[in-house]
Amino acid sequence: MEQLKGNLASKKEEEPKQVDKNCLFCKIANGQLPGSRVLYESDGIAIFKDIRPAATHHYLVVPQKHVSDPKTLRRGDAELVERLVTCGQEFLVKQGGDVSETRLGFHWPPFNTVSHLHLHVICPASSMGWLASLIFRPNSFWFVSASWLIDRLKKM
Question: Is 118 a catalytic residue?
């Protein structure tokens, strides 16, 4: 498994992972689902491909411990979201993606299909079709940008 080096190299998870045995993304992120493939794993974060990619690069960046969804996050979770973004961007660049052409965001409940916090990293955003552009429309009722979520958490 490829390990990226960057801002997260010194960040260590201090508590044991809290995994929901019934959560699909907990199983994938922790290597417990046969046939799934984690592309990156470090310091409590995992990255894998979206099963319905909206662009050439469409990855999901998730905490390996169970976190329900962005609506449940609190002020202290801003750092987690920032780490998800940093990991996603670093991984994307390693894969040949252009960060300036990237859409980063989260589906807002009840419009999420899996109740496990997951950051969508989509690149190039300009290549998304009409439907994908609607599904991943930034700062709509159903999809919020990572920067919007971080700002919201810091203002709590």
Answer: yes
